[in-house]
Amino acid sequence: MRAIVCGGGTGGHIYPALAIINKIKEEEPNSDILYIGTHNRMEKDIIPKNNINYFGLRMYGLKRSLSLSNIKTAYYYLEALKKVKKVIKDFNPDIVIGVGGYVTAPVIQTAKKLGYKTLIHEQNSIPGLSNRHLEKYADKIAVSFESSKTYFKNQDKIVYTGNPCGENAIKSKKVDKKELNLTPNKKLVLIVMGSLGSLKVNEKITKMLPMFNERDYEVLFITGKDYYEEIKENVKCPSNVKIVPYIDNLSSVMKATDLMVSRAGASTMSEIMSLEIPTIFVPSPYVTDNHQFKNANDLVEKGAALLVEEKDLDGDKLVRTIDNVLRDRLKYNKLKENLKGIGSKNSSGKIYKILKDLVEEK
Q1: Cβ-based neighbours of 40, under 8 Å, separated by 6 or more
Q2: How far apart are CA 207 and CA 181, in angstroms?
Q3: For the residues 139-151, what does the mean pLDDT come to?
């Protein structure tokens, strides 16, 4: 299969793309893949490291408010349309796949106008601006949440596949707790607010770390690299609380986790669902359309997670919620039971089948 994959800006777009690419290569080892991303975002480093051909477009996102910078954005968008037309024609793919982020817009739009088959994948419960715009240019739309279907007009295009990031989590090896100076036979609470951490949440959590004293469980708090040194120097942690700046293979730690406190990004949620980890979500209120709240609420409404808003983190509310879940075996088991069957265990396989069917329609 010859495929162009486009998308980027955040790991939430890039890692699902890598999972799809890996599945294509697994099924068809001689496949030829070209990845189109931005010239200055994280995909420009991650994708080449995975030995995937990369083409970078100079593009910027639109400001939601009136801004002179949008004139520059529009100029680069028109330039991108010209460049991708040549790139797509030269590569001549069987299929073009978009995984979100503003860089997908010119690629999918141009591919469709040139007569190529297209698929877009939406990770969040509320589709992003680019994917909503691209609905008319996509032959098929794969969604990670059942609730996402309602945001698209053409229901015939929509296929619920789940998010392929969860499959990578299932394949990861469970960490040995001793490597992290944790006690093997104690329950573990993992607190992580994304790979970079969150300044506001960190400030609130560091105030409550002493409250975990004398608990019969351990807490592993991942601060984010930018905040670790300051927290380490200024916060006196109880012996059952460990802080680290970053963990590379987080899913390996998640496999040893009893309860998680996390943001509600799409990729993390797909891993949580696949590994069936009871979770207290603290959605970021700073994202477009408040989509993390909607992501988390999708599980909360199914009785498969709990939610504490960032504005309610003051005091001991989070500590009390953690205590309540871990001490109430019935509640804990109910959360775990309700997680079963929610996440797709074969998302990349479902996406590959759609791709294969589209290619064979040509």
Answers
A1: 56, 58
A2: 23
A3: 92
Query: Could you give the CA distance from residue 153 to residue 160 in angstroms, rounded to a whole number?
Result: 15
Q: What's the rounded Cα separation, in Å, for the pair 88 and 318?
A: 50
Nearest to 139 by CA among 124, 129, 151, 154: 154
Tally of CB atoms within 10 A around 37: 30
Condensed to tens digits (0 to 9), the pLDDT of residues 242-294 reads 999 988 889 999 999 999 999 998 888 999 999 999 999 999 998 878 889 99
What three-state secondary structure class fits 56? strand
3-state secondary structure of 66: coil
Report pTM.
Answer: 0.82
Q: Is the dihedral of CA 155, 157, 159, 164 positive or negative?
A: negative
Per-residue b or e along 139-152, where b marks 16 or more CB atoms closer than 10 Å to that residue's CB:
bbbbbbbebbbebb
Neighbours of 283 (CB within 10 A): 22
Q: In the predicted model, is pLDDT for residue 21 greater than 90?
A: yes
E strand intervals along the chain: 2-6, 32-38, 53-57, 95-98, 117-122, 140-143, 158-160, 187-192, 217-222, 241-244, 259-262, 279-281, 306-307
What pLDDT score was predicted for residue 197? Answer: 67
Q: Quick check: helix, strand or coil at residue 249?
A: coil
Domains of the chain: 2-163+344-361 (3.40.50.2000), 170-339 (3.40.50.2000)
Give one DSSP letter per residue of 96-145, joined into a string: EEE-SSTTHHHHHHHHHHTT-EEEEEE-SSS--HHHHHHGGG-SEEEESS
Q: What is the pLDDT of residues 64-104, one digit of tens each?
A: 666 666 667 778 888 889 999 999 999 999 999 999 988 99
Give the DSSP H/E element, type plus range, for residue 295.
Answer: helix 291-300
